Amino acid sequence: MAHTVAVLVGSLRKEPLTRKVANALVALAPEGLTLKIVEIGDLPFYNEDLEKSGPPAEWTQFRNEIREADGVIFTTPEYNRGLPAVLKNAIDVGSRPYGQSAYAKKPAAVVSQSPGSLGGFGANHQLRQSLVFLDMPVLQQPEAYLNHTGDYFDDKGEVVKDDTRQLLQAILGAFEGLLDRHAPATQKHAAE
Questions:
Q1: Domains plus CATH for the chain?
Q2: Which letter, b or e, does each residue of 110-141 get, where b requires 16 or more Cβ atoms within 10 Å of its Cβ?
């Protein structure tokens, strides 16, 4: 079954390791998955007052891109044992107005990374708390806490370690299975 997946990158740096991880996922995606990075850096901070007067165009475009996807992969660094504000803002923007969440029922995966040894564990679990509220079935295994990610890539951003490549492929394979299990019945019948 073919699936389109939105990939959110929780870092705004010019050359972030998180974007390298996201790009590696895009490059390693199996034939049934089309991964597309959806930019979040230009989203105005969520403010309900802006919603009432007509949402900013950036919010509308972002929400539409999430709605068009079959699932979402969140890639995130860890800032101060939590997730970055830019990623939390993307969650808030996509989940509003209340009752009209673009995320509802969409399968999700969380891939956290850190150049240190903890692999973004705190950000990963903080993000999962929000995804439970958003009613997103979240990939449980394999867990994706990527540590020492500065060692994963060459100067061109290519994955240099076979075990890293295999882990990313395992995450994508498991996520494809989650997408298949949660696909709408019409999509399942079309694939048969």
A1: 3-191 (3.40.50.360)
A2: bbbbbeeeebbbbbbebbbebbeebebbbbee
